[in-house]
Design goal:
It is a single chain. The protein is mainly α and 312 residues long. It folds into two domains: 2-162, no CATH class; 195-309, no CATH class. Helices cover 61% and strands 5% of the residues. It has a four-stranded mixed β-sheet, with helices on both faces.
Length: 312
């Protein structure tokens, strides 16, 4: 196994340097994971995660750790708590290394639809089951332990949010495409101050990911949204100016009666309606990616266009 991991590491490093795609964090995690399994000492387990994983982190993993406040202690806790899950997800994360060309093609496809595209670096890491992906400046940060999971992953030990997500996971390629759109957007803390702006920010990424992957974006919130679109749009419209996102975005395990992140669906439908209504679709795509988040009249127009399309 050690020889196989070393060979994969050498191959992945060679490919990565040429394409701005980094996978060494996946290799390092599983080396640390195996070491953790070989000791009963909690102190030693934490030391293995620090020495073999965190201290060898790529710049992307460093950003991910800072953004999500991951710790060695949390990884040790999760490894102990979910043995079936980790055994199941391991081969799925390692398969990413053989698909680097496909991920690189996402950049090429994105550039075809967006002439101002700036290629980001892509980092595949193993996180703490709290984030499938995010971005930092010029970087896509993927938590492969979530992104690579699907309905074949043993999620029996996990919470209901992860179980439901894995059942209909849209796939790691669309996840990367979603985050790729984030790296092209212009955003600031001051401009993203309403539920409407944040919803379009996220939903536009799902819509663009669907276009460049040429495959429908699938997620629990999409499936639910398609069945309840009129009710959701009426509810959302009343909340559009709120500065709290709790009922619509980033609510994971907190949403009990319906899928989490339904704001993603609303934003997806808003951008889809705007695109389909436009006579100049290449221009519409550029406008969606380069939206001015302070232009509240434009955002409201897009929302009302989507509501009209849905018979509201």
């Amino acid at each position: 196994m050690k020889k196989l991991i070393l060979l994969i590491f050498i191959i992945s490093t060679f490919k990565v340097n040429a394409s701005k795609i980094y996978t060494s964090d996946i290799i390092n995690f599983w080396i640390a994971y195996d070491s953790v399994q070989n000791t009963n000492s909690y102190t030693q387990k934490v030391k293995f995660i620090n020495d073999l994983y965190i201290n060898k982190a790529t710049n992307g993993l460093k950003d991910f750790i800072a953004a999500r406040e991951f710790t060695a202690e949390e990884w040790v806790k999760l490894i102990k708590a979910y043995p079936k899950y980790w055994k199941s997800i391991r081969p799925q994360t390692l398969l990413i290394i053989n698909e680097l060309e496909t991920f690189q093609n996402l950049s090429l496809k994105f550039k075809e639809i967006y002439p101002h595209f700036v290629e980001p670096e892509i980092y595949f890491t193993i996180g703490c089951l709290r984030s499938g992906g995010t971005t930092s400046v010029g970087r896509i940060l993927i938590g492969a332990e979530i992104g690579a999971a699907d309905n074949t992953t043993d999620a029996s030990e996990l919470n209901s949010w992860l179980k439901n997500t894995f059942k209909v996971n849209s796939g790691i390629f669309q996840l990367v495409a979603h985050e790729m759109n984030h790296t092209q957007q212009s955003e600031s803390v001051d401009s993203l101050n309403t539920l409407l702006s944040q919803t379009i920010l996220e939903g536009s990424c799902d819509f663009i990911a669907e276009l460049i992957s040429n495959r429908q974006y699938i997620a629990p919130y999409i499936i639910y949204g398609l069945k309840h679109r009129k009710t959701l749009f009426k509810e959302f419209y009343k909340s559009k100016d709120e500065i709290s996102f709790d009922n619509w975005l980033y609510n994971g395990e907190e949403s009990k009666k319906r899928p989490a992140d339904l704001g993603y669906y609303i934003g997806y439908e808003i951008c889809k309606a705007y695109y389909e209504n436009s006579k100049d679709k290449p221009k519409a795509l550029i406008e969606i990616i380069e939206l001015n988040w302070q232009d509240k009249n434009k955002l409201l127009y897009m929302l009302e266009l989507a509501m009209k399309k849905n018979g509201l």
